[in-house]
């Protein structure tokens, strides 16, 4: 299990042993060690809660670089509604090597003969989706908080985690940005803004062991609030990545350093917030549609009319409620086949997000993407990130849940019918955030996709508007997700 899975928030991590450090950084050089020390020991550094590392072996660094070159040179080369030639061999291999698909019998003749799968299928037993040949000794697991309320462990591998950068670099190149950070520089800072957040420092061996840090901008992770801007200025990262909630907090800090580009991931980026960030930092702000199960899927391009697909080996369909392809150009649920995570080959995987798929000059485009927006909840005189809600309920054995805040501030928690016995425990887990305010509980009747987070309070959705000291009536309904992503 990857150490990122450990719940270390709230305490300092135990010191690393030499063996643990070698496992996390197999190729670490003296320059890399100096970078890690700089990131952790800087006088304005946050309280890092965890340890992590790239885990790449020497020969794998070359493989990652070759993969990046291949992605840069190979755009998606298929037409909506017409699966490319690699799809059916991919399906056949999955049926031969993946226990879940093997149990279905013979592979289908056509892709649309295969029943789609959903997040609930993965959550029920994700191990059955891991191919037989994957070396479990190097298997990693990334925990997601869930778009639909189904907590999920996503199987991964050091090579898979490192390959995320290929698609981020592809998106950056389209904006005229070629990352050039190297030894002695900080390349990427990942931002969070949560009461509890996994934070760590690392280096990127494919970029000369440049520094990488995941930090939490919540004041609880800093010795002094002013240290946040001071630390970011000291690091001077080339790229900043985060979700809209953390990026909104970043824009409010008095940082003097401006990155070359900002990547917004995990949640839908509202145009107002994008304009605010562009004005504040004077750099491109890229809205990347990404899921932990799939990785970076697409990047928004106004001229292309939507989100342009990034992965050459990811086929996208648009399905109706019964799992059938919609008419060309029609709206429906995004389903994906393929991907670069060889630990989790996906066949017609329903993402829970909706769009139309159209042909563009540079490849297929997701038009009118309606995905995940961040939702905040108000209690005890402050706003709470929806991931704080997930963290509070994580100790309970809940398959999925929903939370809605009404205009009067009251809360309605939805639990699966077989989890209603935990209603009192769930109310107690949320009480520290919402005080004595009544938290009603009801059973969820839906079998699969649910609207996890929603609110009728203005300011609940981070859309670039000023943050409210207190909420006002409004409306925000979303299948919000704070799914993480591998290091860019």
Give descriptors for this structure:
488 residues, five-stranded mixed beta sheet, 21 strands, globular, alpha/beta
Walk me through the structure.
The protein contains 12 helices and 21 strands. The protein has helices spanning 18-24, 30-41, 58-73, 87-97, 99-102, 119-124, 158-174, 227-235, 244-251, 271-281, 386-393, 423-434, and strands spanning 140-144, 152-156, 186-192, 200-204, 210-216, 239-242, 261-264, 285-291, 295-301, 306-309, 314-319, 331-338, 346-360, 363-370, 376-379, 382-385, 401-405, 411-416, 439-444, 453-458, 472-478. Helix 3 (58-73) packs parallel to helix 7 and helix 9 (244-251) runs parallel beside helix 10. It is globular, with a radius of gyration of 22 Å. The model is unreliable at 1-10, 463-469 and 477-488 (pLDDT under 50).
In oligomeric terms, what are we looking at?
Answer: single chain
Provide the spatial order of strands within the biggest beta sheet. 4-5-3-6-7-8-9-10-14-13-12-11
Roughly what percent helix? 10-25%
Find the count of extended strands (DSSP E, 2+ residues).
Answer: 21
Measure the end-to-end span.
Answer: 20 Å
Mean pLDDT: 87
Low-confidence stretches: 1-10, 463-469, 477-488
Q: Provide the gyration radius in Å.
A: 22 Å
Q: Sheet with the most strands?
A: 12 strands, mixed
């Amino acid at each position: 299990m990857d150490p990122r899975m450990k719940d270390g928030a709230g305490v300092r991590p135990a010191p690393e042993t030499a063996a643990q450090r070698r496992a996390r950084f197999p190729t670490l050089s003296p320059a890399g060690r100096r970078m890690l020390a700089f990131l952790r020991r800087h006088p304005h550094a946050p309280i890092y809660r965890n340890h992590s590392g790239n885990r790449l072996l020497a020969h794998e660094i070359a493989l990652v670089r070759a993969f990046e070159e291949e992605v840069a040179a190979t755009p998606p080369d298929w037409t909506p509604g017409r699966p490319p030639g690699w799809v059916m061999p991919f399906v056949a291999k999955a049926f031969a090597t993946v226990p879940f698909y093997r149990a279905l019998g013979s592979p289908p003749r056509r892709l649309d003969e295969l029943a789609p799968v959903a997040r609930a299928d993965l959550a029920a037993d994700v191990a059955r989706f891991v191919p037989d040949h994957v070396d479990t000794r190097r298997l990693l697991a990334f925990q997601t908080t869930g778009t639909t309320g189904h907590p999920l462990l996503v199987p991964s591998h050091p090579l898979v985690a490192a390959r995320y950068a290929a698609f981020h670099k592809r998106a950056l190149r389209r904006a005229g940005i070629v990352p050039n950070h190297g030894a002695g520089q900080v390349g990427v800072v990942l931002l969070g803004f949560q009461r509890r957040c996994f934070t760590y420092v690392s280096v990127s061996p494919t970029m000369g062991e440049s520094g990488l840090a995941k930090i939490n901008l919540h004041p609880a992770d800093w010795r002094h609030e002013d240290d946040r801007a001071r630390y970011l200025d000291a690091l001077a990262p080339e790229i900043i990545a985060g979700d809209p909630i953390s990026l909104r907090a970043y824009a409010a800090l008095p940082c003097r350093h401006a990155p070359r580009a900002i990547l917004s991931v995990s949640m839908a980026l509202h145009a107002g917030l994008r304009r605010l960030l562009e004005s504040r930092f004077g750099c491109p702000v890229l809205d990347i549609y990404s899921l932990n199960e799939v990785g970076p899927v697409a990047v928004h391009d106004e001229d292309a009319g939507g989100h342009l697909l990034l992965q050459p080996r990811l086929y996208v369909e648009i399905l109706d409620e019964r799992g059938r392809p919609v008419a060309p150009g029609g709206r429906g649920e995004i389903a994906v086949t393929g991907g670069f995570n060889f630990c989790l080959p996906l066949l017609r995987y329903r993402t829970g997000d909706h769009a139309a798929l159209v042909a563009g000059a540079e490849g297929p485009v997701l038009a009118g993407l309606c995905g995940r927006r961040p939702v905040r909840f108000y209690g005890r005189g402050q706003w709470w990130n929806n991931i704080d809600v997930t963290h509070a309920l994580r100790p309970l054995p809940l398959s999925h849940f929903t939370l809605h805040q009404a205009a009067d501030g009251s809360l309605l928690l939805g639990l699966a019918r077989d989890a209603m016995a935990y209603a009192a425990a769930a109310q107690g887990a949320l009480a520290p955030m919402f005080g004595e305010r009544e938290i009603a509980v009801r059973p969820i009747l839906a079998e699969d996709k649910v609207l996890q987070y929603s609110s009728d309070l203005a300011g609940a959705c981070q859309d670039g508007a000023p943050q409210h000291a207190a909420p006002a009536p409004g409306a925000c309904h979303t299948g919000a997700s704070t799914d993480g992503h591998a290091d860019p």
